[in-house]
Give the backbone structure.
Amino acid sequence: MAISKTLNVNGKRVTTTVDDPDVPLLYVLRGNLELHGPRFGCGLAQCGACTVHIDGKAVRSCVKPLSSVTDKNRIITLEGLGTAEKLHPVQRAFIEEQAAQCGYCINGMIMEAAAFLATNKKPSETDIRNALARNLCRCGTHTRIVKAVKRAAGNA
């Protein structure tokens, strides 16, 4: 039986209909709401490609059941982090450092880095590497990704 669910996504209240209340949040964001920042990677919360912010915390949306999210939770995807006119500092730094190669992991890297920098304004390189350790990048752009996070933190 289909149910209606209201969410707060990127600062807007949106209502969607789903058949299964425990569908992963990622499927609703991509399929129902047509947002393309969070990506399906592993489906097991191990790669980070699906990362979004829920109330300021980085969350793996591929394993987050829709039923565990309410309209009081603030969900931010890559599309809501900044705008084309005013990029988030992490988005800008990733562009300036040319930190993307294939780009598949970049959503997770940016979202994880933004949540991390919100709580650690002056991280060391080791802090950055530890914060991003659970995000996988198959292309090997780790050095540029770390440089981008340093730049965003003002440590470039």
About this structure: The longest strand covers residues 3-9.
